[in-house]
Amino acid sequence: MARHICDSLDSTNAQALRLAPTTPGPAWILAYEQTAGKGRRARPWVSPRGNFHATLLLHPKDAAPQVALRSFAAALALREALVAVSNLPHAFSLKWPNDVLLNGNKLAGILLESTSSGQGVAHLAIGIGVNLIAAPDASMVEDGALKPVSLLGETGLRVEPETFLTHLAAAYDAWEDTLATQGFAPLRAAWLSYAARLGQPIRARTGAATHHGIFETIDATGSLLLRTPHETLAIPAAEVFF
């Protein structure tokens, strides 16, 4: 698989989608620095040198709902790579929909962006950011959000971005193959085995509404099932607070 290693980019996702029309196969784009990285809801993602900023460019043939399930493949691969470089399997958990936690705080995030083709998806960018050596100050996150942490700060381990990419790319390939050959069920089971706050109270914010309830599970579409005092809601997209 192609790899593009860049010194500095505005955003690895943006670069992936710029390259997409002339890049026939899958490719990884890694930048040592991002100057305009972003997370969910276009929030700035602090991207200093030494941290990990990379995007996997794919050209999926599936329908949009199936394409979206790759966020779970990415989360599982990301956790697997972190365990490989740290040998700390119990330290990492997964927060729905697309964060990886270290010791219960936010270490990494995933952002999927795509371009459309008719009713389908032409190109998919799976952006991944990991605080390998530095984390944003807690004052930069909104009230109620988890504290950002770094791998170096929590474990004392220093991992180079290209080394981390080698582990991540291999892990993602395996989960992509599982998704293609066996469907979402094995990914769902694996994801739930590492899920943070499963069976516990959470808040899920969808636009202007905030729902309080028990995190029951995720369903066959990847939606969060939240048991409230009145009903069980299937929530396809939300921001979750503990």
Beta content comes to 25-35%
Radius of gyration over C-alpha positions, nearest whole angstrom: 17 Å
Number of helices: 6
Low-confidence stretches: none
What does this entry look like structurally?
The protein has 242 residues and is of the alpha+beta class. The protein has two domains: 2-193, Bira Bifunctional Protein, Domain 2 (BirA Bifunctional Protein, domain 2, 2-Layer Sandwich), CATH 3.30.930; 201-241, Roll (SH3 type barrels). 27% of the residues lie in helices and 34% in strands. The chain has six helices and twelve strands. It has helices spanning 12-19, 64-68, 70-86, 151-155, 161-182, 185-193, and strands spanning 2-9, 27-34, 52-58, 92-95, 99-102, 105-117, 120-130, 201-206, 209-218, 224-227, 232-235, 239-241. Helix 3 crosses helix 5 and helix 3 (70-86) packs across helix 6 (185-193). It is globular. The protein starts with a strand and ends with a strand.
Question: Mind sketching the topology for me?
Answer:
Blueprint: E1 2-9, H1 12-19, E2 27-34, E3 52-58, H2 64-68, H3 70-86, E4 92-95, E5 99-102, E6 105-117, E7 120-130, H4 151-155, H5 161-182, H6 185-193, E8 201-206, E9 209-218, E10 224-227, E11 232-235, E12 239-241
Parallel strand pairs: 1-2
Antiparallel strand pairs: 2-3, 3-7, 4-5, 5-6, 6-7, 8-9, 8-12, 9-10, 10-11
Keywords:
single chain; 242 residues; alpha+beta; BirA Bifunctional Protein, domain 2; SH3 type barrels; 2 domains; 5-stranded antiparallel β-sheet
